[in-house]
Amino acid sequence: MAEKFLTRERGQGLVEYALILVLVAVVVIVVLSTLGPSVGEIFSSIMTALQWGVAEGGGGSALTSVSVSEGFGTLTVTVQVSQSTTVSLSGDVSHSGQACNGSCQFSFGTYPAHGTVTATAAAGGQRTASW
Question: pLDDT digit string (tens) for 28-49?
Answer without folding.
Answer: 898 888 887 777 778 777 777 6
